[in-house]
Amino acid sequence: MAASTAATVAVACVAMFQAVTKEGDRALYFSDGATTKKLIDLVDAPGADAYSFTSVGKGNVLFSNTSEAAGRELWITNGAAAGTRLLKDINPGAASSSPGGGWSASRNTRFETIGDRAIFPAVTKLQGHEMWTSDGTAAGTQILTDQLPGPGNGAGHPPANPLVFSNGAFAIYSDFGSNIWATHGIGGEQVLKWKSGVAIYPGLGTVGNRILFGPDLWVTNGTAARTRSLKPASSPNWRVWSISRLRGMPYALLSVTTNSVDSRELWVTDGTEGGTKRLGNVNLYNWGSNNDPFVKIGSKVYFVATNVIANNPAGQELWVTQGTAATTKRAVVLAPTPQFTSFAPLGSKLYFTAKATQEGYSFAVNRAFVTDGTTAGTRMLSTLLTPAGPLLSLHNRVVFPVSSSGQVALWAAGSGLAAPVKVSYNFSKIVGMQNVEIRSPNGVNTPCAK
């Protein structure tokens, strides 16, 4: 989600992405859910994708991009072609600093934000692989701290990038020696020297104004004195696989296994040992090592469960909770049972994509849906559109790529639309789409939905 933006600067929430035309031209685009505009042309070379789009306030967006002269470096845009440029050649010359590391479908950014600053790993010849920070200016783009002085890799080494995670107020990250550090964006404090060789991932999330981390579940407020373990003493094989990342919530949801054969159970924590407990008889769907999608709408959190009722032994269902056993219940059941693929909250509605068997098809097809949190209030947006990527929330609409006849285009649903509409040209590929806040071209303030 985009960082907070100064009130004096009107911003527009857009989906920024790289696309390739059928002629093979590569360029950077953005869409506000009504129209799609080309920003700049990109280098046409293998591995030259633009990604890690990250808002840093005042309508500015940082991203990782490649040029022939500087290699892969830190770029900035305000949503105008004239305002899109190389911000700083962190590793001077043609060699790349690779800010944020490599892009992947499972983790499409390694930039985190603390207020209006970004924190990310980068490589230089003189300092090796370390953590850097930027406020969107060249002068304000600097090394955070040289963990291992000289050309050694203090913050891990490529391609095994260090993990960094922020709750908006402070961030934690791991160094090459498996120490855990906390920072407010201008320097690092060592929180805890953890067992050598043990990573802080899987398991990174938030509860209140604190950060939860690690498969054994630790909690910190960014100081060593207030960093402690929450692992239940009664469950020696207890392991956290993912944690909700819902800022400002008084509780966090956990995906947990208690032995090597159990399915993933739903647990809850308020950041204390006594408040860390199993939340009813619910088995979470196993999304792998990525963060399970816990989606907040108002005071409710939605998630996917499986194997929870006798007449649906192998299917997936949409469940809801408000952090207690009494409020944890099945919300939506679709027939036939779908396989959920992505979620996007918008106002009081939840948009999602799911693969399900549809009349006229002998196989499961991916379709887009919207729900008010009830089975009766759930409907398919179109029986013809096949989403080819995740849904993304903007100001008052959601956008998603749709594939058809070997091509892909951006479509939108939401405010003012009775049915989804096409809002872009046809491309051969859309890559790395993220929602960010650029300077509003018409002076109207339409920030990203929070």
Low-confidence stretches: 1-6
Distance between the termini: 7 Å
Helix content: under 10%
**What is the 3D form?**
globular
For the record, the CATH architecture of the domain at 43-199 stands as Beta Barrel
Number of strands: 37
Cα Rg: 22 Å
Number of helices: 0
What is the makeup of the main sheet?
5 strands, antiparallel
| Residue-averaged pLDDT | 87
Beta percentage is over 45%
Given the helix and strand composition, which structural class is it?
A: mainly beta
CATH class of the domain at 43-199: Mainly Beta
CATH topology group of the domain at 43-199: Lipocalin
Please provide a written account of the structure.
With 450 residues, this protein is mostly beta strands. Among the domains are: 43-199, Beta Barrel (Lipocalin), CATH 2.40.128; 201-332. 0% of the residues lie in helices and 45% in strands. The protein is built from no helices and 37 strands. The protein has strands at residues 11-20, 26-31, 36-41, 51-55, 61-67, 71-77, 85-88, 112-114, 117-124, 128-134, 142-145, 164-166, 171-174, 179-183, 188-193, 204-207, 210-213, 218-220, 228-229, 239-243, 252-257, 264-269, 277-284, 295-297, 300-306, 316-321, 329-332, 339-346, 349-357, 364-371, 378-380, 386-387, 392-393, 397-404, 407-414, 421-422, 429-439. The strands form 9 sheets. Strands 32, 33, 34, 35 and 36 form a 5-stranded antiparallel beta sheet that branches. A 4-stranded antiparallel beta sheet has the order 3-2-1-37, with no helix packed on it. A 4-stranded antiparallel beta sheet has the order 4-5-6-7, with no helix packed on it. A hairpin with a 3-residue loop joins strand 5 (61-67) and strand 6. The model is unreliable at 1-6 (pLDDT under 50). This is Hyalin.
